[in-house]
Design a protein that fits this description.
Blueprint lengths: L11 E5 L9 E4 L1 H4 L2 H6 L2 E8 L7 E3 L13 E2 L2 E7 L9 H14 L15 E5 L6 H13 L7 H11 L13 H19 L2 H12 L1
Parallel strand pairs: 2-7, 3-6, 3-7
Antiparallel strand pairs: 1-2, 4-5
Helix pairs in contact: 3-4, 3-6, 4-5, 4-6
Protein name: Dual specificity protein phosphatase family protein
Organism: Ollibium composti
Length: about 210
Amino acid sequence: MNASPRYERPNISLIEPNLPGYGIDLFIGGMEGAGDLAELRERNITTVVNCAVNLDFNYAVSPFPEEANPDAIYGIGAVRYYKLGLIDGDGNPETMMLAGFYMLRGALSQKLPERPTYPLREKGNVLVNCRGGRSRSVSLVALFLHIEARAKYPTLDSALDHVRAMRELRRDEWFETPKPVLVNAARRAAEWITLIDSGAAPLALAVQGSRSA
């Protein structure tokens, strides 16, 4: 059981305004903020990336036009919703943080087709959330800022400190926000992303495979 005190912080915190290369505002929140559609609309948040495996939202606000069941819990959502599903601690495969980075990059970069089945094409701001908005979401957003705004955040630690401060995490809880195992996963993911983006990943994987053969 976690005996650390739970301090008050905003339901949603602005982490990076006008994100370089994307021109949107990037937010972090907990379950209260991610579940408040009025606040999401007020902040022009059109995309939500949920990092928590033990938390879900039903954003469906109307059924698909062809759906005959009015009680269905699926349909057209109020926001574009992406689910990563991390454990807040041990138990995640090492590559899940890497997957989270590319999911977030994809959420920001997707170009949706002009079809009725893709009604939410508006490009607004992005919220990354977990249950409390203090560990899983913090580690993923710090990784993303370090990679996508490297001139401003040359190290993962500089990105982490920025996110912690903007999220209003108390300094006496920084040792567990994010959990160390998630910070380590973000460091490993940063190494992989650097290789992948440089085009060196296939060669590195081939070398690794030959050594293990």
